[in-house]
From TrEMBL:
Gene3D superfamilies to which the protein is assigned, alphabetical: 2.40.40.20, 3.40.50.740, ADC-like domains, Dimethylsulfoxide Reductase, domain 2, Formate dehydrogenase/DMSO reductase
GO cellular component, one term: outer membrane-bounded periplasmic space
Keywords per UniProt: Iron, Iron-sulfur, Metal-binding, Molybdenum, Oxidoreductase
Swiss-Prot/TrEMBL cofactor(s): Mo-bis(molybdopterin guanine dinucleotide)
Record's protein name: Molybdopterin-dependent oxidoreductase
GO biological process: anaerobic respiration
Domain 4Fe-4S Mo/W bis-MGD-type: from-to ranges: 5-65
Length: 728
């Protein structure tokens, strides 16, 4: 280490799947390199270690900009902060006074998940608009809308359906059901724990249309399955368990409600179709004998952990996948015991901190689901949305490419009278801004970051001062609050005062440790196990549901009175854009669009170091490629009636026939014909939510239907670029 080098501990605040330690080496105000922790449970992946290239990227936005070209064109001129803030304040007032505050659309999402410089769950932006009189805000859970709803209706008011990762080491069987933490991290310690599980000889099976990195690293068996059909396999497993008498009847009798109704469905008493493995085989593409074997294994290997990933729930009927998984966990008595799993979203308790701004939360604003933001802009009240939006204010999100149906989104962003974006880069969304404000990265400010659902917090030391003219989002909102005459009410705390406020629930000693060591990880005498109390003491600790039980049957779901899409017991429901959809004639391939290894959603897209990790390419089985005459590495067009992208083909047997896969959210770059040269996945996805009720942050629940993401339910066709040229 060179002289005068300071080492500052922090973390990436992006919505990256983990929360690891970054040790930033700073000399004379410049980041020289980034290391990570010794502790294998806190070690950063390539994305975190590449952060220096992100901070110092030559394309960083350096000063406020005003649009000079057309929206989306990317032509801007430099302006001063004074002019930028005056303009934004003037427009906010004008729109509020002309149309009412609900004409302001407050769109913030997950660009930063720290406690202070963040939009989650409720940040400075919504606080400012509430002081001005209100807003329409962007709501919904793009990660796990289906699972969040399933957990709520099955287990009740608790997000904590997950065990500590260490607890996986007590399992005898781990099912990676659409779960790929080798790539998605999902807890910084997960990969370390899974590697130890493998070394310990725990049996690990992956059920996934793709042979994932996780399957390659840890699993003894890969069961490929047709996307969107997992619930059929699960109910067939439940059928086997029931008809072979392998269920834990005492558990079902003591802790659950409505198993009899589920059993009727399994046995076909209502619809005349027993849900046998033979019934499931043609639906799922999984051999009946494999289903029987896995059912027996799962029912007898107690304790067994059914790890449900977010991938299969990001489908048109993803909530049923989650509900069926929970029913299986209940039938086998694997809930609330070490080594088991409640098959929920997987969060364990957090370190208690005071959230910034949440105290100021004003319930009651109208909202729009992230699945429907474009329609809400295009159609407004006439289309059944709560407001006619005139001004769009975007921070912490690249919603044009991260939410579904990009081409429609691009049309929608032409409509508002005024658009403001806070960004670090000229992203596809930022190109639509009228005023574009440069913000700092998380290494240029101090903050605190909890590991979501993982029981520790990290202090984020400011490594360097703000680069160029960048400011924090918080400073920008404070400046605007002053201009709009609500400066005093906005909570004018300094960054330091805010951090003190956030840390208040911790003991002085723990606060000191967090600041000094960068880490506060309260010891747990044994790994946390979700619902342990309810299982050990059902009388003293009922489940937080109306019946006090695990609701395999839910009256609340029944009350929606929509049995075809929201059945009261878990059921296999066919998805739209599945293999038997008439659209499959024209678009015979099912497309998955999951989390990218080399990016965090749309963030880090532009780093050469990370691009070396993996090419951006569409995975296609050699059998499907042969039918289309495609060679490995060849440029192809992937298309459906929503759009066309250009990308390279990667021929690989790691994906089952009939399914193709394209990772995540690259930076949409349409040519004159509208073909996206960046190969951005959401050009191809449909902006149609799954049927689950929309949940709101901060415990606010709403019966409105529709917020579950569906980015893994798509039909497409692929053609070689050369082939197409030759037909013209
Ligand atoms: N097809 C497909 N679509 C998906 C997914 C998928 O798997 N497939 N995943 C979905 C999921 S799970 C999620 S959570 C969403 C994420 O959706 P988003 O939250 O929209 O995506 P991100 O790329 O994480 O971050 C958004 C932007 O925040 C910016 N940013 C970072 N830090 C700051 C800051 O301090 N201030 C401001 N103002 N901006 C900042 C980044 O530059 C980035 O452009 O995407 C969803 N979209
Ligand atoms: N590297 C990286 N890690 C991340 C993120 C990132 O952007 N990049 N984002 C983070 C965030 S915010 C989130 S919410 C999570 C997202 O985490 P996930 O949503 O779980 O990630 P995905 O890769 O979309 O899906 C996981 C697996 O599900 C499989 N899958 C898809 N559809 C089906 C299906 O119908 N059936 C079955 N059985 N399997 C299916 C996919 O092939 C994939 O292997 O990841 C987090 N971690
Ligand atoms: Mo997410």
């Amino acid at each position: 280490m060179k002289e005068n080098t300071q080492i500052l501990s922090t973390t990436c605040a992006n919505n990256c799947g983990g929360k690891c330690i970054l040790k930033v080496h700073v000399r004379q105000g410049v980041i020289e390199r980034i290391e990570t922790a010794e502790d294998p449970k806190l070690r950063a992946c390539a994305r975190g270690r590449a952060y220096r290239q992100y901070v110092y990227h030559p394309d960083r936005l350096k000063h406020p900009l005003k649009r000079t070209g057309k929206r989306g064109e990317g032509k801007f001129e430099r302006i001063s902060w004074e002019e930028a803030l005056d303009t934004v304040a003037r427009e906010l007032l004008r729109v509020k006074e002309t149309y009412g505050p609900e004409a302001i659309f407050s769109a913030c999402y997950s660009g930063s998940l720290s406690s202070l410089h963040s939009a989650f769950p409720y940040g400075a932006q919504n606080r400012l608009f509430d002081l001005l009189g209100g807003k329409t805000f962007l709501a919904g859970n793009a990660s796990a809308g289906g699972g969040e709803a399933a957990g709520y209706y099955t287990y009740g008011e608790s997000y904590q359906t997950g065990n500590d990762r260490e607890d996986l080491l007590s399992s005898r069987l781990i099912l990676l059901w659409g779960w790929d933490p080798a790539v998605t991290v999902l807890g910084s310690s997960t990969r370390w724990i899974m590697t130890r599980a493998r070394e310990k000889g725990i049996r690990i099976v992956s059920i996934d249309p793709r042979y994932t990195d996780s399957a390659a690293a840890w699993a003894q068996e890969w069961i490929p399955i047709i996307p969107g059909t997992d619930t059929a396999m699960m109910v067939a497993m439940a059928y086997v368990i029931l008809t072979e008498g392998l269920q834990d009847q005492r558990f079902l009798d003591t802790y659950t409600l409505g198993f009899d109704r589920f059993a009727d469905y399994l046995l076909g008493r209502e619809d005349g179709t027993p849900k046998t493995p033979t019934w499931a085989e043609p639906i799922t593409g999984v051999k009946a004998e494999t289903i029987v074997r896995l059912a027996r294994e799962y029912a007898t290997a107690k304790p067994a952990a059914l790890q449900t990933g977010y991938g299969p729930q990001k489908t048109a009927r993803g909530d049923q996948f989650m509900r069926a998984g929970m029913a299986l966990a209940a039938m086998t008595g694997n809930i609330g015991i070490p080594g088991g799993s409640a098959a929920g979203n997987g969060a364990a308790p957090n370190v208690p901190l005071s959230p910034a701004f949440l105290d100021d939360f004003k319930p009651g604003s109208p909202y729009v689901s992230h699945m429907k933001w474009a329609d809400a802009l295009l159609e407004g009240r006439a289309g059944g949305y709560p407001s006619d939006i005139r001004l769009v204010y975007i921070s912490f999100s690249n919603l044009l490419v991260t939410f579904q149906n990009t081409a429609k989104g691009a049309r929608a962003l032409q409509k508002p009278e005024f658009i403001v974006v806070h960004e670090q880069f000229l992203t596809p969304t930022a190109r639509y801004a009228d005023i574009l404000l440069p913000v700092t990265t998380c290494l240029e400010r101090a903050d605190i970051c909890r590991a979501f659902g993982r029981g520790y917090a990290l202090f984020m030391h400011r490594a360097i001062g703000p680069l160029y003219e960048a400011r924090t989002d918080l400073e920008i909102f404070q400046e605007l609050a002053h201009r709009l005459g609500v400066g005093e009410r906005f909570n004018p705390r300094s960054e330091e005062e805010w951090l003190d406020h956030i840390l208040k629930p911790l003991k002085v000693e723990d606060r000191r440790r967090l600041r000094e060591e960068g880490l506060y990880r309260p010891p747990r005498p044994e790994p946390f196990v979700a619902f342990r109390e309810q299982i050990e003491d059902p009388v003293g600790h009922p489940f937080p549901t109306p019946s006090g039980k695990i609701e395999i049957y839910s009256q609340r779901l029944d009350d929606f009175n929509r049995p075809d899409t929201i059945p009261p017991i878990p059921q296999y429901l066919e998805t739209w854009e599945g293999r038997s959809d008439p659209k499959s004639q024209a678009y015979p391939l099912q497309l998955l669009t999951g989390a990218p290894k080399r990016q965090t959603h749309a963030t880090l897209h532009n780093l050469p170091w990370l691009q070396e990790l993996e090419d951006h390419a569409v995975w296609i089985n050699p059998m499907d490629a042969q039918k289309r005459g495609l060679k490995d590495g060849e440029p192809v067009l992937v298309y459906n009636d929503r759009g066309t992208i250009q990308v390279r083909a990667r021929l690989t047997e790691r994906i089952m026939p009939g399914v193709v896969s394209l990772e995540g959210c690259t930076w949409y770059d349409p040519d004159e014909e509208g073909i996206d040269r960046a190969g951005s996945a959401n050009v191809l996805t449909r902006d149609e939510p799954s049927s689950v009720p929309l949940f709101l942050p901060h415990g606010l629940r709403s019966p409105a239907i529709g917020s579950g993401p569906t980015n893994n339910t798509n039909l497409v066709e692929i053609i070689g670029l050369e082939e197409r040229e030759s037909h013209r």
